[in-house]
Design the sequence.
């Protein structure tokens, strides 16, 4: 075993740690601070300056008496004021109907899409684990959605769910214009993009199960159902839990699809927390509300991740 | 008898699998098909839109779209940001991956450092976005490629750390020891032995990181204005006359084609990469 110099150890690790620490933890603390403040952005006129008027060659223009023509220019400065308001923003967020609706939608969205993705992913993994023709080719086609640009995917589905002449128009479903259907349309996009991911992970896990284990089980029982529930699913369980964790954390960020597919509409039917926070911050300039709103979401996601923490820790021994 | 039954079952499963694959492939196909139609036909073609059978294909939309400088600027900005961020993430993240695989840290222990790296991919970016906006304005790097590169590098770095860490763990340490017996320094052993042997994993990590930097819209929409990237360019296909399907299709394809190719190239590492190293695949 080589004896590694302690300084070398730190030299390798620290740049990445410092980089990520300053750029994630620092903004988070700043965001925490902002959530307790009322941020006012004001354009303040700090003075008036006289500058010469230039002609198109860049030379100062002169008046008929020979003096240089000048114009007065107001000097503006963007000033940001932070007023400490305590928990006021949090109270407003919690009591805000719009935030409640967004939280409810995001919650239902995450539950349904992840549930469908897991079930469908398991089914597909089971199917592709069989001996079938052209498996490699179909597998390649199946996984294409994973890497597709989510924002572009939103637009793609906009053309596919187009109610007048889209390829699914024959179904007669108001995919995007009805406030009951629109949430499902967004879920459909998520399911389309991420079922292949679940499928791929489960397939890798299934192929990792030794054949003799399955063969031994077939000696006991002929029922495929029993083999699945008593042998395969228990073996897959840690991986299913991990995929659920990753998918929940990822789909809770929901923003891109909405920004291109529904813009939160119709009305506010598909407004996710991220989308609402974005609008509050950059359309209504309410940084305090946005920070408080996103922090509440952060806490919920953190609590969820913590529930899985011990298991996750074991994976990286 | 058994053999016949087996091949019948195989055929049935193949047909089911093929059907599902087609359904999943359809949206990409439809978009591609749309991009080859003359504008009027984007609303009238029925069926599954096969060129030459359902309609006469044309490259008109593509040449029209690609003739505008916006397309070139968007492509250039997106590639530039993604390439530089990926390179930076590798330069900074690779030594960390090596450190986590080879050295023992007591406080905090290695696995907690690894999990901490991963946790950034789990936390919602909405929580960090207002601070970035304010800070980037203060530092004067709002709406610059430089500012965007810093943000992207931060959020893609976990990929290289967890993917390549696993590969380093799988390398026999004797190779590095031998190099050091021959007089190489620690850094030399890392650069001349460990890194060259891990090139496939590093390449796969790069493809995944490139794609994530390329695909990002959330930070782009907050921190960029005039310096637009592909997603903003796609959004430009919607104007006051409504959504122009034929342009949207072309622009979507322009954005999506590169990630799709990279996806196929990185196939073997997607499982490990996207489960953040937890499933080896």
Sequence:
């Amino acid at each position: 075993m080589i004896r590694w110099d302690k300084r070398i150890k730190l030299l390798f690790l620290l740049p990445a740690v410092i980089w990520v620490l300053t750029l994630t933890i620092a903004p988070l603390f700043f965001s925490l601070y902002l959530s307790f403040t009322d941020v006012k952005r004001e354009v303040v006129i700090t003075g008036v300056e006289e500058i010469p008027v230039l002609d198109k060659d860049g030379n100062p223009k002169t008046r008929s008496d020979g003096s240089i023509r000048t114009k007065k220019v107001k000097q503006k400065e963007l000033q940001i004021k932070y007023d400490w308001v305590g928990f006021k923003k949090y109270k407003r967020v919690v009591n805000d109907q719009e935030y409640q609706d967004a939280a409810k939608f995001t919650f239902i969205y995450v539950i349904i899409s992840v549930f469908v993705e897991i079930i469908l992913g398991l089914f597909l993994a089971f199917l592709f684990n069989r001996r079938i023709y052209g498996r490699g080719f179909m597998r390649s086609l199946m996984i294409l959605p994973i890497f597709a640009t989510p924002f572009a995917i939103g637009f793609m589905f906009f053309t596919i769910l187009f109610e007048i002449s889209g390829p699914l128009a024959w179904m007669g479903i108001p995919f995007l214009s009805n406030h009951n259907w629109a949430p499902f349309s967004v879920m459909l996009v998520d399911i389309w993009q991420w079922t292949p991911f679940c499928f791929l992970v489960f397939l890798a896990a299934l192929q990792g199960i030794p054949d003799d284990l399955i063969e031994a089980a077939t000696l006991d029982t002929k029922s495929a159902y029993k083999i699945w529930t008593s042998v395969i699913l228990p073996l897959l369980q840690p991986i299913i839990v991990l995929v659920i964790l990753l998918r929940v954390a990822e789909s809770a960020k929901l923003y891109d699809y909405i920004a291109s597919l529904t813009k939160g509409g119709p009305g506010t039917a598909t407004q996710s927390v991220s989308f609402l926070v974005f609008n509050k911050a950059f359309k209504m300039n309410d940084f305090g509300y946005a920070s408080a709103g996103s922090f509440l979401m952060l806490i919920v996601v953190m609590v969820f991740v913590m529930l899985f923490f011990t298991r996750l820790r074991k994976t990286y021994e | 008898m058994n053999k016949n039954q087996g091949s019948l079952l195989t055929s049935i499963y193949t047909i089911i699998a093929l059907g599902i694959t087609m359904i999943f492939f359809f949206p990409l196909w439809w978009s591609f098909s749309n991009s080859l139609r003359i504008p009027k036909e984007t609303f009238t073609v029925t069926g599954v839109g096969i060129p030459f059978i359902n309609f006469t294909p044309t490259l008109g939309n593509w040449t029209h779209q690609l003739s505008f400088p916006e397309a070139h600027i968007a492509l250039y900005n997106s590639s530039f940001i993604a390439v530089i961020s990926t390179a930076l993430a590798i330069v900074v993240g690779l030594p960390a991956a090596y450190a986590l695989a080879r050295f023992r840290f007591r406080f905090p222990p290695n696995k907690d450092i690894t999990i901490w790296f991963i946790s950034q991919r789990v936390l919602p970016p909405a929580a960090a976005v207002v601070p970035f906006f304010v800070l980037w304005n203060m530092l004067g790097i709002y709406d610059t490629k430089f500012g965007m590169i810093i943000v992207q590098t931060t959020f893609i770095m976990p990929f290289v750390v967890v993917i390549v860490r696993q590969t380093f763990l799988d390398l026999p340490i004797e190779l590095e020891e031998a190099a050091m017996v021959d007089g190489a320094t620690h850094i030399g052993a890392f650069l001349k032995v460990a890194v060259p042997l891990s090139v496939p994993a590093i390449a796969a990590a790069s493809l995944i990181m490139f794609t994530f930097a390329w695909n990002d819209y959330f930070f782009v929409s907050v921190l960029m204005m005039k310096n637009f990237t592909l997603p903003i360019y796609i959004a430009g296909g919607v104007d006051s006359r409504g959504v122009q399907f034929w342009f949207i299709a072309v622009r979507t394809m322009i954005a999506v084609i590169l990630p799709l190719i990279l996806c196929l190239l990185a196939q073997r590492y997607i499982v490990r990469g996207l489960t953040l190293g937890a499933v080896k695949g």
